[in-house]
Amino acid sequence: MVEIIHKSCGLDIHKQFFIATILCRTGEKHQQRFERNDDGILAFKKLVISEKCDVVACESTSDFWVPIYDSLINHIPVIVGNARDMKAFTHKKTDKIDSEFIAQLALNNMIQSSRVFTKNHRNFRSYVRLRLKLVQKRTDLKNEAHSILASEMFNLKDVLTDIFGKSGRIILSGVFSGKTVDQIIESLSPKLRKKYDQIRDILDREISQNTAFRLQTCLKLIENLDNEIKSLEIEIFNYVYENHKHEMGILMSVPGIGELRTLHKITYATLLFLGLNV
Length: 278
Hints:
Structural class: alpha/beta
Distance between the termini: 23 Å
Helix content: 55-70%
Strand order of the largest sheet: 3-2-1-4-5
């Protein structure tokens, strides 16, 4: 970054638009509103290049800054500051004042730049975060299914370690498709068939139509989430093994660390191995 900044541009970015304020040390000021779309960002890019700004600065609010950053970073230094740090300086808040205030901070080199990863790495991290959210939603649905079964005293968890595993799905799909108890038990593994009496006691209970409908809804959503999570994992591991195969090899050599079971920890640790902030 330029040590002495002669001209800065501050941005106050919103979902649909952003306000840009260009300040010079000579006291000149130019302020303009742009739409946050391709045409607006291109027009803004032409402006700051033609004005020969030394730096563009903005707050790291949501991800609204990302397309603007990607458009400018190969042409002009861009500072993405922590919004919490920048709010330490009190001022009356309006869009125009915020934009000018950020420009003033940048002009005086008072913004500590956050680390911004490359676009490919940001995409990779977004996949990991999305996977985590989907896993959390799947867990919520599984807990709801457990609650539904418990309300009917259909205690499959007494005989199965995981009622959403292969055997659990065989039992539940058999119940929903109208199979007899003997037909369901016959389709189970020999190990589970040894629990014949326990399983029969559970399956002899009738499930109400309302309960069956709610449970089937949960199971369908869980299955859909399973498929989406698998798709994300393919993208995640394609990126990891293509770009950080060596680091993954080191991590996978640690006893107890597996790809899927500790995916979030693995990717987090991979970043630490690379000396990156996470």
